[in-house]
Amino acid sequence: MTDFTPYASLFGGILIGLGAVILMAFNGRIAGMTAMLGGVLEPKSSDSPWRLAFLAGAIAAPLIATLLGAEFSFASPTTGVVLAIGGVIVGVGVTYGSGCTSGHGVCGLARLSPRSLVATLTFMATTFATVTLIRHGFGV
């Protein structure tokens, strides 16, 4: 059973959108988390500091929210190995899809990019099919 949290989700979505708008307004860059991580990992990247700051903020925000009393829970019926394999598969998909859900779904759709619309619809259809298969096809 998944908990439905409309107010927390709305507030989180507003913060993500605000962060994307601020990054675009002040830095002229799209807030794609995968591209940011890739830029930090590239040794020759000259714009790593802002990427590192953005990623640090994405990590620090839930930690600060927890200190302020927010409660987060995460449970997975799978092992760490399966989660790691899933992460690698997502990484491959992001590479071939030329972006992630934050880059295409948040920023690309806001820019009315047809490529981002196709990518986001593909992400959503795949997610829907995966959840349906896992929850109903395998009886989990």
Automatic annotation (TrEMBL):
The keyword Transmembrane helix applies. The keyword Transmembrane helix applies. The chain crosses the membrane at residues 6-28, 49-68, 74-96, 117-138. Keywords: Cell inner membrane, Cell membrane, Membrane, Plasmid, Transmembrane, Transmembrane helix, Transport. GO terms for cellular component: plasma membrane. It is found in: Cell inner membrane. It holds the Pfam family Sulf_transp. It is a multi-pass membrane protein. InterPro entries: Sulf_transp_TsuA/YedE. Signal peptide: none annotated. Belongs to the TsuA/YedE (TC 9.B.102) family. PANTHER family: INNER MEMBRANE PROTEIN YEDE, SULPHUR TRANSPORT DOMAIN-CONTAINING PROTEIN. This is YeeE/YedE family protein. The lineage of its organism: Bacteria, Pseudomonadati, Pseudomonadota, Alphaproteobacteria, Rhodobacterales.
